[in-house]
Amino acid sequence: MTDRVVVKLMHKNSVDCQGPLARREFMQVGALALGGLTLSQVMAGRAASGNRSKRTSVIMLYQHGGASQFETYDLKPDAPTAIRSQFAPIATKVPGMDLCEHFPLQAALADKLSIVRSLHHDMSSHSDGGIIVLTGKRPLVADPTSQSKSDHPDFGSVASKSLGPGPNVMPPYVALPRKPYMTRPAYLGLHHGAFEVGDPSAKGFRAPHAGLAVGQDGKKLADRRSLLKQLDRIRHTADLRGNLAGTDEFRDLAFEMLTSPESARAFDISSEPDTLRDRYGRNLWGQSCLLARRLAQAGSAVINIYFNTPRTGPEFTNWDDHPGNAGREGHFAKFMKIRLPYMDQALGTLIDDIFEKGLQEQILVVVVGEFGRTPVMRYGVPNRSYGRDHWPQAYSALLAGGTLRMGQVVGATNSKSEYPTQSPYRPQDLLATVYRHLGIDHAQAFSDFQGRPVHILGDARPIAELI
């Protein structure tokens, strides 16, 4: 860092002024922006960050609620009416890879993706399922109310701990628009939690730090308030069992981001051509996928998109397609028919964009939820609705890129998609595949709050057919 640096800020009399700031003035700006953070703290954080000039990245589209395998990637068109998909299959150039009729973009890219149809576990509540899928660890006690929180870090926090910030101080773990509610960085420390960005499709979207980047056109120093609120929220709501020390390191990273023009540019989704933004879709899912590609390309290791619903409104329900979800009436297929084209546009464009830009070896895309849905549909009263309930015994995931073998279907389920019959894999195996792409040894251990070693994953193996 040089002794003089240019920062644009609002003067107290509301007159713009721009000019070089001496080191002392820069330190004062830093203290103002982050509540007392000193330059020495920033430099100490930089020294310990472990930056890497090149890295691989994972973009996860986490389908919270549990998407139905029948209506997406394992349709069972020959099953009885009460079981088979509510949608017709469309053939692809890959033998055996028939996809839902509402996935034409993905179908056209079949040689650039692979489907795993044989995932399974035994956690039937949303939070417990999310914990095992995102951390690879079973909750100690099952919680049917879906209020449980993880005792272990998820794969994004593990990547943050193992890899550190990316080039140009890119945050190692980003969540769009928010982080999964059931996981936390636990014994790794708060600074390894997800950096929440918000909705990139919102009017006037700017990343929390973008207004203060050195040499950029930050309009108001008061823009620091959004970041301060995030830091304060973390500080006040955190589980303080050994985590409080992580707040300083979190602030160090945040401050470096505030003064990194490269990081600010990576978050500047408005710099993308309108034609490309339109291709992704001008909605939460589409713009999140576009921003995720930008962040991965710039060096963030993990971008987890909370792929819940693309828009607000009664017709836009989430993936929890049991009878009466969100108090709705009617058949769940009616709502999936609205939701699936949004997914196809965002995901299909993301995969195509990654391959067009030659980023497929750097970026791995993973689409998965916490479980699948029951083979038999159920009628719910008094909601007068049809749906499928939670079913962790068999569900599907999609992967694209990452030097993995594409253009194949891995595993199979029985005729009713009740359980795997070929190449059964667990969430731990999917995570082992993700860690392999990131260059992280999933057998390594971290110390928990009591100083005991905890392995990232226990008995797990990458999905052999993909390697």
Structural overview:
The chain is an alpha/beta fold. It has one domain (54-207, 261-466): Alkaline Phosphatase, subunit A (3-Layer(aba) Sandwich), CATH 3.40.720. The chain is 30% helix and 17% strand. It has helices at 23-34, 39-47, 104-108, 126-135, 155-163, 224-237, 246-258, 261-267, 274-280, 284-298, 332-356, 427-438; strands at 5-10, 16-21, 57-63, 89-90, 99-100, 114-119, 173-176, 195-196, 302-306, 330-331, 363-369, 372-373, 378-380, 385-387, 390-391, 395-401, 408-410, 412-413, 420-422, 445-447, 453-455. It has an 8-stranded mixed beta sheet, with helices on both faces. β4 and β5 (99-100) form a beta hairpin. The chain is globular, with a radius of gyration of 23 Å. The two termini are 42 Å apart.
Class of secondary structure makeup: alpha/beta
- Major β-sheet strand ordering: 8-7-9-3-11-16-6-17
Average of the residue pLDDT scores = 84
Largest beta-sheet details: 8 strands, mixed
Key structural traits:
three-stranded mixed β-sheet, 21 strands, eight-stranded mixed β-sheet, Alkaline Phosphatase, subunit A, disordered N terminus, 17% strand, alpha/beta, 12 helices
